[in-house]
Each structure stands twice: as structure tokens, then as C-alpha cells.
Amino acid sequence: MPFHLHILDDGSGWSDAQCFNQRVQLAARTFRHDENAAVRHIAHITHQMQSIRAALREPTKIDALHDAAHADLRACDHAGLIALHSKIIAQVMKGTTQKAKTNALNVIIARMTRTYITLAQARALYADADSAHDFEHILRVTHMAKYLAQREGAAVEIVRAAALLHDIARHAEDHVDASLDHADVAARDAKELVLKNGATEAFGERVAEAIRSHRFRGTTQPQSLEAKILFDADKLDSIGAIGVARAYAICGLMNQKLYSEPKENKTATRHQHNAAHTPVDEYHVKLKHLRERFFTLTAKKIAKERDAFMRAFFEQLAREARGEL
């Protein structure tokens, strides 16, 4: 994503009003765009703004504003378009709430970048997540997924959206209703969200397909390259140093023992998120088997070093726990 769009998609913790106003000012200031000129271009579409609230509620009407503005600005660069979009929002949303302004701005940013989900929108969906599945996990997986997509020739936009949204139902499964499959629920909700942000049906379904098959303990296997990349990126965050850290974050959350002797013939199930399960159990039923499950060559190369570190850690842990000198 170009630098100027990162500025607008900063996902900061500011209030809605601060975030909106700062984004508008950053766009104008960074690119020295003539706001008065932008307003003049907007003037000819004021007749389309009779129902401000309807435009905010209906993505198709935001699209109409977007397309009309572009008609006079086909020669403009992204800087001009960003400032213009900011000005459109400021003009058409007078009298509405700051939250509505920020939401509409997020929609337009998502449309402009063809990502159909902003960092700010995604961050808000993980407010209740535990530290092993929080937004830091999401950002790591997204960064890795984009890297894998670029190396493997996958659709980066699909991979990015799927990575940002793949765990949005994890909290519900772990802490509300254990019968839920967070991958299935997240796939459904993610598709609905990107469609609301202007994505095509095909885009939404490809995002959903990737999310639906991302879990180790799931029954759906990744089929598309994008789905395989999401699986690989998510599992790379389950091994190595970060994998050990996440295992022990869950250990503390569930009041699990720090160490337990390996249990013979134990397998991974969806019912092991409890106090009886330990990080050592998780290592033996899942983590040590992940090196055999990666799909892409790039992920397999990265996994080799991370797996070696993780194995050395749990071997050392066992020696110390048993009192070996």
C-alpha cells in the first residue's frame, strides 16, 4: 500500500473526531492539495447529496459520489483523490455524528485501495481478544501473509483481507459458545463486511474460503493458493519464539500448569482450551506437527528455523522440569 494510504489507515487510538480531522489535514498538508479546487469539482454533484443520511447508509450512493468526482479528475494522482475524498466526506456529512463520518471515511479508503477493509475497522473487531489472538497477532499474520502472497504469486488483496479478519469470531468460540467454529463464523461475517465495503461477490467468497479453512483443528482443507497462504501465515505465528510465547499466554489465561509430562497417543481436538491442557500438551498434539503441514515453499523455509528453536525450547524445558543437571 502506498505511504499516503498508510497515513489514512493508521488505526490509532484517537477519538473518532480526532482521527477524522487528523486524516483530512494530513491528506491536504502532505500533498499540498488545493482544497478550494477540490470543492469546485464537488460543486457539480451537489444535487446528488439531497439525502445525506441515505448516502451514508447505502454504499451504492457513496459509489455515485465517488464516480461523479472521478469524472472530472481522471488525470489527478492519488494525492489529489485522497484530498478530494476527504473533502467530499466533510461536505456531505455536516450535521451527522463524528462516528458516522469516520465510518464513511473508512469505507471510501477501503474502496480506493481495493482492500475493502481498513486497519481501523479490523482493529475494532478484536477489542475483546486475548493476548494470543489479539490485534498484534492479526498484524503479524497479515504481514507474513502479504509477504508469502508476493513471493508465491497470490492475490495480495484477498490474502490481506482474509488475514485481517480470520480470527474475528475466536473470542466468541473460546469465551461465549464452545460449540461455534470460529473459522466458519468468521468466514461468514468477513464476507458480509467486505461486501458492505464495496467488494464484489467473487472477492467476498474468496476471502471467506480462505478463512473457512485456516484452522489446524478444522475439517476443511485449504484449496486456493490464497487459502493455503493464510493457513501458512497463521501457523508460522504458532511456532518459533512467538509460538512459545503465545502458548504460555494461553497457559496463564487458563491457569494451566507450566509443564506436564507428554501424554501417549494424545491428539488435537477442539475441546482442549481448558485448564487441564498445558503448553507441553499443545506442543505434542499440534505445534511439533506443523512443520509437516505447510503448503508453500516460502513458508516451509521460514518454518525450518522456527521449528528448530521451538523443539530446542521444549527439550530444555523438559530437562529442567525433571531436575536433570
Give a short overview.
The chain has helices spanning 3-8, 16-31, 35-43, 52-57, 59-71, 78-92, 98-113, 119-124, 135-152, 156-165, 170-175, 182-196, 201-212, 225-236, 240-254, 279-285, 297-321. The protein has 325 residues and is mainly alpha-helical. The chain folds into three domains: 3-113, no CATH class; 135-221, Hypothetical protein af1432; 240-321, Methane Monooxygenase Hydroxylase, Chain G, domain 1, CATH 1.20.58.
Question: What does it look like?
Answer:
By secondary structure, the chain is mainly α. The protein folds into three domains: 3-113, no CATH class; 135-221, Hypothetical protein af1432 (Orthogonal Bundle), CATH 1.10.3210; 240-321, Methane Monooxygenase Hydroxylase, Chain G, domain 1, CATH 1.20.58.1910. Helix content is 64%, strand content 0%. It has 17 helices and no strands. The protein has helices at residues 3-8, 16-31, 35-43, 52-57, 59-71, 78-92, 98-113, 119-124, 135-152, 156-165, 170-175, 182-196, 201-212, 225-236, 240-254, 279-285, 297-321. Helix 9 runs antiparallel to helix 10 and helix 10 (156-165) crosses helix 13 (201-212). The chain is globular and about 70 Å long. It starts with a helix and ends with a helix.
